[in-house]
């Protein structure tokens, strides 16, 4: 399904992944696979308390233990030299005055062995004053809640608050007159929802190897979504010049937003600096759960009004997101995206970003949007049922299209929501029969996408092959996509192109691989780099023929005379020009640096069938179909993989995953045995439909695809479970006990 | 003069005006004059925002040209996962 007339040769094909052999044979180098001569091991001491003042830390006994080479605490970093934008990051990396959550790092050791490091950690004496804690978002917003930060005054509120609170930020979006809109409604539905905090669940724990030398230079190997970001933040925290720190990104075993900041890297660098030796740190799974960055737990209220014929008259939402110890929730994106699927005259959303005694929040795929979509699309489904309308027809009737003013402000240009809904309507899944205790759920979702700073390089080798160098870690198949776009632009075979991720000293700054930006922006830069190389190759061929450069043109991977007057020459192939590079001016390369704009927004619509066991509340996913607009799918298999991955993560979020805290504020399930993620046996094959409504901001029409797919699943599953169970589910996860209780309560049991 | 729309809570910091008219030819001038004319906006603008021009999102793009023909919105800085 698509609108683009262009005839692509490489883009849209499905070659084998370039990193496949290395990964299936275990040769790919992930963060923990690196080592260096004389390497020490780094280990953390973490707070056992959810909230405590640190009166003192005595590391003297640990430092004196034979085999211990360095000890780091918060005082090891000079916060007065750190930019204010990184103060929270530093305080999270190593607690200073207070420990704000269980697992907050308070000290670290570098030692010659793991056993000595462990022994040393036990010798560190921390004097804590335990303070009252709060982990629930609603409780944290209460006026009498334990206060995490005495200097936290809600930003963006007028009048400015006079008392501190745990509410760091307030946001409001929308347009129209919300009360007038509700006055026009025949039916109004208002409901409240809650969702649990979840973790990105990447398989590879954070790992790094740091090597600081006595002349103040440093090298760092780490698994990250953005090694340029790691370099800049670490240099700032270490008081180093940026150019003296070289960071290399390892292969990455998943990120999903969770590897867009630093946790262990600055500590490894500081330990290495103090010890004068390389230091390697690998987080345990328990540390990943307790001390990396999960996403928000939320509390939300949605109110929607509609006419009897199914036209939305007003939509309102309040979103309270728990953002961890430093209030880093993505509530603004939740409030912006909540109603982005619909064409609304009257819409209003407000969001509160709330601090609580939990790990500092980090992005998780379409940050903030999935929870908001769960709440909004649940009420949309209920409204369609109340009005007696078909779920997809109701959405189609209100869908945002080109020219719609979005709920967050801008007017949409070309967008593909209606195309995804129509594709869902015509899919045989939608009309398949359901059995007893089964339900079908529908939901649509949205994500913004963006571009950002990008620098790339393209080197033509003498045998006619090409090396492509990018600075955006490959977390979802971008190397293959890069190769395909270069092959398309140069008119050469995909197999003749090899793409690598360069270290931070080899390219200009590249923003993090996030926001579904990499295939869009690195691809855009590479298309331009290929054009740069082509122009140079045209000039070389013209010199060989001794005709003006303007008299040649590029066609199908060859240079040829532009017209009859240019002379009679046989087309010169890419490989021929490359082979003569030495005699025609030296190496041939293309470069491009860009702050990419023009990323197109993306919409998706999901369908899911479930069966609910009436005796246990267990939910089985029977069938799942993802329909999403990709603009142009560069490598359709990877695009399908992104769709499937988003759906699967959403299934986990919907049914089982949650951070469970005890009364003591400690995390009760910091491991994969108790934090239940879906595995293959829990899932059907996820069907996918790629819709292609070209993005006008990209020469091939590409839109980011990595995030939209996690936006609709929880809502779609909640709608299916609600239908099957006969009761509206308003809280995630819909674990068996919760579903069973909801069914019992509905029966009055 | 260009018209620029502010998101709800940002408008509250600009004397409650959701739409402002600013003399600016590019994003740099726009942000600079917004901060000068409405000091309440300054901390938010300094922290970083995105600018939407006719539905296209721009981060850190000082010299992107704007005119009275464009629809311009100031938005929280778009990030992702």
Write up what this structure looks like:
The complex is a heterodimer of chains A (749) and B (81). Chain A is an alpha+beta fold and 749 residues long. Chain A folds into three domains: 34-131 and 204-253 and 259-291, Alpha-Beta Complex (Aldehyde Oxidoreductase, domain 3), CATH 3.90.1170.50; 298-449 and 600-746, Aldehyde oxidase/xanthine dehydrogenase, molybdopterin binding domain (Aldehyde Oxidoreductase, domain 4); 452-596, 2-Layer Sandwich (Aldehyde Oxidoreductase, domain 4). In chain A, strands 3-5-1-12-9-10-11 form a seven-stranded mixed sheet, sandwiched between helices. Chain A has a five-stranded mixed sheet with strand order 7-15-14-13-8. Chain A has a four-stranded mixed sheet with strand order 16-24-25-26, with helices on both faces. In chain A, helix 10 (331-337) links the parallel strand 14 (312-322) and strand 15 (347-354). In chain A, helix 10 packs parallel to helix 11, helix 11 runs parallel beside helix 19 (713-725) and helix 18 crosses helix 19. Chain A is globular, with a radius of gyration of 27 Å. Chain A starts with 19 loop residues before the first helix and ends with a helix. In chain A, 59% of the residues are buried. The mean pLDDT of chain A is 97. With 81 residues, chain B is of the alpha+beta class. Chain B has a single domain, classed as Roll (Ubiquitin-like (UB roll)), CATH 3.10.20. Chain B is 27% helix and 27% strand. Chain B has helices at 8-12, 27-37, 42-47, and strands spanning 2-6, 19-22, 49-53, 56-58, 72-76. Chain B has a five-stranded mixed sheet with strand order 2-1-5-3-4. In chain B, strand 3 (49-53) and strand 4 form a beta hairpin. The radius of gyration of chain B is 11 Å and the shape is globular. The N and C termini of chain B lie far apart (36 Å). At the A-B interface, strand 7 and helix 10 of A face helix 1, strand 4 and strand 5 of B.
């Amino acid at each position: 399904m698509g609108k683009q007339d262009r005839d692509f040769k490489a883009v849209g094909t499905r070659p084998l992944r370039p990193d496949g052999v290395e990964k299936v044979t275990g040769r790919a180098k992930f963060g923990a696979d690196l080592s260096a001569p004389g390497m020490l091991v780094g280990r953390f001491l973490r707070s056992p308390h959810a909230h405590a003042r640190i009166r003192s830390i005595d590391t003297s006994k640990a430092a004196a233990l034979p085999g211990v080479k360095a000890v780091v605490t918060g005082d090891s970093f000079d916060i007065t030299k750190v930019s204010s934008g990184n103060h929270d990051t530093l305080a999270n990396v190593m607690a200073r005055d207070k420990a704000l959550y269980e697992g907050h790092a308070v000290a670290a050791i570098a030692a010659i062995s793991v056993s000595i490091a462990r022994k040393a950690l036990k010798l560190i004496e921390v004097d804590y004053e335990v303070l009252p804690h709060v982990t629930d978002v609603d409780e944290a917003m209460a006026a009498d809640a334990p206060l995490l930060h005495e200097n936290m005054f809600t930003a963006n509120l007028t009048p400015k608050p006079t008392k501190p609170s745990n509410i760091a930020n307030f946001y409001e979006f929308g347009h129209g007159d919300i009360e007038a809109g509700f006055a026009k409604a025949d039916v109004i539905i208002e409901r409240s929802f809650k969702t649990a905090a979840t973790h990105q669940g990447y398989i590879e724990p954070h790992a790094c190897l740091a090597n600081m030398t006595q002349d103040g230079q440093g090298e760092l190997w780490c698994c990250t979504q953005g090694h340029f970001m790691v370099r800049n933040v670490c240099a700032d925290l270490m008081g180093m010049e940026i150019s003296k720190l070289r960071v290399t990104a390892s292969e990455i075993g998943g990120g999903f937003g969770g590897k867009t900041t630093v946790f262990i890297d600055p500590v490894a660098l500081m330990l290495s600096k103090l010890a004068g030796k390389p230091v390697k740190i690998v987080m345990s799974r328990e540390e990943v759960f307790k001390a990396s960055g999960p996403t928000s737990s939320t509390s939300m209220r949605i109110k929607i009004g509609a006419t009897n014929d199914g036209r939305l008259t007003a939509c309102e939402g309040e979103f309270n997101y728990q953002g961890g110890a430093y209030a880093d929730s993505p509530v603004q994106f939740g409030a912006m995206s909540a109603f982005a699927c619909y064409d609304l005259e009257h819409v209003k959303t407000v969001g509160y970003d709330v601090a609580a005694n939990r790990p500092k929040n980090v992005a998780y795929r379409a940050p903030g949007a999935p929870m908001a979509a769960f709440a909004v699309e649940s009420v949309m489904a209920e409204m369609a049922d109340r009005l007696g309308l078909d779920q997809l027809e109701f959405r189609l009737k209100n869908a945002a299209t080109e020219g719609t003013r979005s709920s967050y402000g801008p007017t949409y240009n070309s967008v593909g929501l209606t195309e995804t809904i129509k594709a869902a309507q015509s899919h045989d899944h939608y009309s398949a029969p359901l059995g007893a205790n089964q339900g079908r759920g529908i939901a649509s979702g949205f994500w913004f996408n963006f571009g950002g700073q990008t620098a790339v390089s393209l080197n033509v080798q003498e045998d006619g092959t090409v090396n492509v160098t990018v600075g955006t870690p490959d977390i979802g198949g971008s190397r293959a996509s890069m190769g395909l776009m270069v092959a398309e632009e140069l008119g050469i075979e995909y197999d003749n192109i090899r793409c690598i991720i360069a270290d931070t000293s080899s390219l200009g700054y590249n923003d993090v691989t996030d926001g579904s930006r990499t295939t869009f922006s690195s691809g855009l830069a590479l298309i331009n780099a290929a054009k740069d190389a082509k122009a140079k190759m045209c000039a070389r061929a013209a010199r060989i023929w001794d005709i003006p450069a303007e008299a040649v043109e590029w066609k199908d991977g060859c240079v040829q005379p532009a017209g009859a007057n240019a002379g009679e020459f046989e087309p010169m192939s890419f490989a021929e020009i490359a082979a003569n590079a030495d005699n025609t001016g030296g190496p041939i390369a293309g470069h491009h640096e860009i702050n990419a704009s023009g990323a197109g927004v993306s919409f998706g619509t999901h369908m899911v069938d479930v069966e609910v066991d009436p005796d246990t509340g267990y939910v089985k996913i029977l069938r799942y179909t993802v329909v999403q607009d990709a603009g142009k799918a560069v490598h359709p298999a990877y695009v399908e993989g992104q769709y499937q991955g988003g759906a699967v993560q959403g299934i986990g979020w919907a049914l089982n995953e949650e951070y469970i805290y005890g009364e003591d504020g400690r995390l009760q399930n910091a491991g994969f045995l108790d934090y239940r993620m879906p595995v293959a046996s829990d899932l059907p094959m996820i069907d996918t439909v790629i819709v292609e409504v070209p993005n006008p901001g990209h020469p091939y029409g590409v839109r980011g695809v990595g995030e939209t797919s996690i936006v609709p699943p929880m809502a779609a599953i909640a709608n299916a479970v609600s239908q099957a169970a006969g009761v509206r589910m308003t809280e995630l996860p819909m674990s068996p006990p919760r579903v069973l209780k909801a069914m019992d309560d509905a029966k009055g049991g | 003069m260009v018209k620029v729309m502010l998101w709800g809570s940002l408008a509250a910091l600009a004397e409650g005006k959701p739409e402002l008219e600013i003399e600016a030819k590019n994003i740099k001038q726009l942000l600079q004059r917004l901060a000068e004319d409405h000091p309440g906006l300054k901390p938010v603008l300094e922290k970083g925002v995105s600018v939407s021009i006719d539905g296209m999102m721009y981060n850190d793009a000082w010299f992107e040209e704007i005119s009275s023909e464009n629809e311009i919105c100031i938005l929280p800085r778009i990030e992702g996962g």
